[in-house]
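Why this split exists: single-chain examples teach little about how molecules sit against one another. For that reason, every record in the complexes split bundles all components of an assembly together and asks for one structure covering all of them. Below is a record exactly as it appears in the raw files.
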Amino acid sequence: MEIFYSALNALLDWQVLLALLIGSVGGVIIGAIPGVGAAVAIAILLPATFALPPLVGLTMLLGIYGSSMYGGALPAVLINTPGTAVNALTTYDGYPMTQNGEAKRAVALSYSASFVGGIISILCLIMLSPVLARIAPMFGSREIFLAALLGIVLVVLAHRGQVFAAGMLAAFGMFLQIVGLEPVTYSKRFTFGQTWLTSGVDLIVVVLGLFALSQAFLLLTEKDNAPEIKALEGSLFSGLKELWLYKRVASVSAGFGVLMGMIPGVGEFTAQFMAYTYAQKTSKTPDMFGKGSPEGLIASEAANNAVPAAAMIPLLALGIPGEALTAMMLSVFYVHNVIPGPQLFQGQMDLVIALYLALLILNVIVLCFLLISSNLLTRIIELPTRVIGLAILLLSFVGVYSLRNSITDCALAAGFGVFGVILKRLHLPIVPIILGMVLGGIMEIKLRSAMPRLKTPLDLIDRPIAMILFALILIVIGLHMRAFIRRQREKTLAIELDNR
Amino acid sequence: MSRIKGMQALFKRHRQPGDIVFAWVFFAVAAFLFTQLGAQSPWMPEAKTFSQPAFWPTVSVGLMVVFGALHLLSSALSPRLTGRLSELGFWLRSAEYALWFMIYVFMVPWAGYLPTTMLFGAGLALRAGYRSKSMMVSVLLLSIVIVVIFKSILQVKIPGGELYQYLPGPWRSFMLTYL
């Protein structure tokens, strides 16, 4: 209880509350602008928080992290364009509802479902804390190495139909991480004799290039577009009442979000897919799905908004990010001298609780803000896309240049920006690069520190958790191979039938 | 014959115009890095395999080569798409804005953050096709707001411009500190 009061006391500081308010409202606004997203905002704002006290900086960026998906639902429902990538499924039923003249109902339901998803997820996080505090110390170097390896395997296999591309881009991320001085022997790796490469490639530079600058270049190069949106009339509070009618779908979908969020490398898309499939299978009107089903909309929003808090579980307990945003948050923690991992639960439990409470408060702030200011947000969505591109370009400069005042970093970010444009145009995934960089670094350090204590490589899995993780890796690969072979057999059969 | 068709079906997938160009370039870069492994990440004589500084470069570059080759194969076996050249043109056009960005980066330490941001914002707005007075005013206001928030309030590390040295005393220190 003493720890709880200490956490509450830290959180009630006016600077922390102000940072939380700015982060939450800012996150919603950023999420509502199609193509910007939380990763861009966090990357831009991260250097700006260097000078702030750790909890102030952390809560501001945590606010953006936890609230962007709320805002992303608005353009998904109103103009069929998801604000953030994870709101794509929301367009399936949200936009048809708008076309049927139910825009207000769709927006209200999506906010309410997001709120329920977020709250359920945070409650799970809080309830799991004592378990995490007990389990986390059981993770030594070999377990963390295997968990990171599982994350890499999952992030590659989760990209169905793009496994080869995801694999090569994850490997590219791992490669980017090794460029520069090796941390133990200080030998140079892939510097090609260039001094500017010895300090390595910074994760923030890569993120800003791949997410922010690439989006700016894309928006400035593509045709200008300024969507027109009709104002929402009437109160949005009815959504919470209506959501009660669909409480089963909302809670089960949030459960899928929590479950998938906890597994590194899986994330929102799988959670949404499972929630949507469940909602459709159990619905009395499955034919309505994709044509404006409130259940479909609720499943999508409750599932995706349950992921951020759940994704904090492997991040806080093991220091392993599950997707690009948590990889960004890992950098945020490091910058503010908070090292996620088993020690965090033992040494800084008050900070952990303060973060949970911050997540809880931000959901309330965001819901209140959205219920009263959605019409204001629609004005932001109406901004011409090239103006948004211009603003991102100006803001990206702050993010990259203020890191180390390095022109080399800016040139690298610009290069990654063009690379990001190519990946986006080819519909190739960017996230594996970021996770490859982060998880590759973790794997290298942890394997190196684990191996001297082992007599043979097999000793790597001689502890129960390590064995479970290794078994999980084998099961995941095995299941993927089985599904792949089955699909292949079906394809071959279809070809043979065609030939006859 | 059906076995060959089966092999094709194994690797065929949905793709976009220009995918094969990207696949070739990525594979070529990965293969080049692979040839450089010995020179760019040497193996230490006494260190164990997993402690070798070259171990992870070998793993990552090796995986780049393997997955890059598989991606290339799948791209080559997928049906040919039209519009490859126009897609390459789009990539090049987007590089123009990378150039704009770098000009901005080079100008800030010389001309100062506020003047450069205003000039760059206005120039980019003109380049993007905006001509109206209201848009220009909006862009200039946006530039000022960005500078005030980040440099004046949040005190983000962006150096004052060399040109500020020529300003009169009190203005000079104000501009160097806040704008």
